[in-house]
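Worked example (supplementary).
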Amino acid sequence: MSKAQVQNKHSINDTKSQVQVITRFAPSPTGTLHLGGAHTALFNYLFARQNNGKFILRIEDTDIARSKKEYEDDILAGLKWLGFDWDEFYRQSERKEIYKKYLERLINEDKAYFSKETEGERESVIRFRNPNKKISFNDLIRGDIQFDTAELEDFVIAKDLESPLFHFTVVVDDAEMEITHIIRGEDHISNTPRQILIQEALGFKSPFYAHMPLMLGPDRTKLSKRHGAVSVNSYCEQGYLAKALINFLALIGWNPGTEKEIYDMEELIREFSIKRIQKSAAIFNIERLDWFNFHYIKQMDEKELADLLPDYLPEDLKSKAKKNHAQWVKIVALEKERITKLPDIKNGIAYFFEKPEFGKEMLLWKQEKDFGAVKKHLGKVIEILDAMDEKTFMSQNIKEAVWNYVEEQGRGNVLWPFRVALSGLEKSPDPFIISEILGKEESLNRLHHAIEKL
RNA sequence: GGCCCUAUCGUCUAAUGGUCAGGACAACACGCUUUCAAUGUGUAAAUCCGGGUUCGAUUCCCGGUAGGGUCACCA
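After joint prediction of all chains, the assembly is encoded as:
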């Protein structure tokens, strides 16, 4: 049977189907939620939501030695920040009795046994009696995959009745929670045969498997502490938007087959399809993430952004920004298309709050003007601005007021010193909008100040 | 090393048994502009190699190579 037929047979879009889709994200709190985990969580979430199914969050904390509460907190915070919500929540550490019951059953049926170990501290462990058969499963993404489990030998499924191990707890939980689709990273492909063996021994039904392509670091190896495997929460702290991360992650290993690049969660839920998941691993490219972030910042409402941004400012700028809200909103409107990450706002806006320092040579445009001419131009600009009404002291009006003179004298000759007098920078927004934001009085101050330098 | 997965521009990817192999990010150039940013236009950039099937393969098959994953009393 082909992959397409298999998928078709179990089509969940079929309204006659009685089967409710249930997916799960099952992180281990032995580390933070990194991009790879978020990627897996996203696909599980999208698939569950688009089928009106359930999305379960299960904390796999059977390894008490390595599991930490702070990691669990990090994972939950990260998932919430990204916009995921879950229908059920479990911790494996709270389900020991359930595992024990199944473990005993396996032992009673002689499908597992206590094994005396010659080495190590423990007297014995519980091993699974491997039937040593060939098993195969149909991966929704990769098609048929076959393994010979003989080489797995009698693997360990628990340290003792109270301490089940990963493969065992996963199988029990997935069955108990009635998970229909296991969507997880490709690194779990080789775990699947073990888990199927346990399923068969316990008489459980096998769920569908979909092994997603891995996200690799720039060095083409599995994401780890070395690369971007930092907590998604740190992306939040670095000033990335959750929307940007979601959009970026969604388009890794999946695409709708159109040329549309911008997707919000709603659209993703609507258009996501397991059939269109890629087989090959993808390399994490932060430039692309930056572009999405830039895009979403640019798209944001400036009032909303104005409320958000002060938190990314150093204290001195922060208090200045909060002093005049109307002015701050204008600054944000101006800067939002110049920043890639939220904290970038702190760069190059100090001149709005304090008179800039600069040498008089800065006022010369392309070294082809003498100071006398600069002085004359600035004087004229002062004269024009001074005549303007404070109430209509706005970018467009200012531009119109000086435009005749500017055209007559050469744009750069007038506008360069005008702009530098206000910003003190080689690169900045145009002098009209800066004037508006500064206000008539402060603009005139700065122009006079510049003339004094000459 | 055994087993498993994978292979289209630098990166994320689209497409097809016959296309000028498309888009996006990045890069570069040009336009707009006093500078920056934004924006517009354009350029460069890919089907891993070798066989086979076929009138025709990037596409299907086989082999090679490369990359990745996995081989715990971790998950």
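Two points are worth noting when inspecting this output. Chain A is about 45% helix and 15% strand. Chain A has a mean pLDDT of 92.
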